[in-house]
Amino acid sequence: MEEQYSHSYRILCRSCLQPTDWCYCKNIQPLDVGMRFAILQHPLERRRRIATGRMAYLSVQGSYMIHGYDFNDDPHIHALLQNPLYQPVVLYPEPPAFNLDVLSLHEKRQLILDGKKLLIFVIDGTWATAKKTILRSQNLCQLPRIFFQPRQQSRFRIRKQPTKDCFSTIEAVHQCIDLLGEACGFDLQDRRHDALLTTFDHFVEAHVQHKEMLKKTGMGLSPRRVEKKHIEGEKVCSNKMKK
Ligand SMILES: [Zn+2]
C-alpha cells in the first residue's frame, strides 16, 4: 500500500513544500532586513506549485505565513496587530497609500514610530483575490497602506502576470526592502537582499528548462495536474534547511 502511494505522489520538502527534486531550500540564506513581513496567502495561491509567497517567507528572517482570505477574526493577525513591538502597514496600491517611490528617507523614517519594527502585510494572491481580501478584512483595510511602481517588468516568466506592472510576491518583498531597508537600519550597500531574486531566478530558470525539455520530448503531465495530486495526497520529507 505504501509503495503504491509513493508511486502516485511525489515526496514534498517539508520546508518549501516543493517536490524534492524541485526543492530550492539550498539556495536560501534567511536574511534579517530590519523589518518583518507577514505573507497572507490565499487558499488558491497555496494550491499553486509555482508560487513565490513561501519563498519570500523562507528568505526573510522573522517572517510570518498566514493562510486565508478573510482575516477579520484571525487570531494570528489579531496578535500581530496587538504586538507593541510592531508598526503594521499593508502593501496595497489603492489610495490612500504612501508612495514609497517619492518619499524621502526622512519621511520613510517618520512612518515608523520610535522603538518599533515595521511589519508589512503582503497579500499573496492575484489582484482579484487581494482586493476581496482587503474588502473583507476590515482590520487590514484600516491599516496605513504603502505601494510602489515596479522598476522593471516581472521576471516571473513561467506565470502570466495580468499587466506589466504586476510583480510576484517575492519581487514585491525585495522591492520593499530596497525602498525601506535604509529607513529600517538595514545596510543596502552590499545588496545582500538581492539573494531573494537569485533564488527566484534559479527557480524560474529550472522550470523554463523543464518545460522546454517536456516540449522537445512530448513527455510528462502538465504542472497543474501534478500539483493537484500533491495537495490531495501530500507527503513530506525531512527539512534540509537549517532553521
Ligand atoms: Zn525545500
Account of the protein in words:
The protein has 243 residues and is of the alpha/beta class. It has one domain. The protein has ten helices and eight strands. The strands form two sheets. It has a six-stranded parallel beta sheet, sandwiched between helices. The longest helix is centred in the last third of the chain and has 23 residues. The radius of gyration is 19 Å and the shape is globular. Zinc ion binds next to loops.
Number of helical stretches of at least 4 residues: 10
Q: What distance lies between the first and last C-alpha atoms, to the nearest angstrom? A: 33 Å
Stretches where pLDDT is under 50 for at least 5 consecutive residues are 1-7, 223-243
What compounds sit in this structure? Answer: zinc ion
Shape: globular
Counting helices, strands and paired strands, the structural category is: alpha/beta
Query: How does the major sheet shape up?
Result: 6 strands, parallel
How many β-strand runs? Answer: 8
- Mean of pLDDT: 83
What letter string, H or E per element, gives the SSE order? HEEHHEHEEHEHHEHHHE
Instruction: Please indicate the count of domains.
Output: 1
What share of residues are in beta strands?
5-15%
| Rg for CA atoms | 19 Å
Q: Helicity level, as a percent range?
A: 25-40%
Major sheet: arrangement of strands: 3-2-6-4-7-5
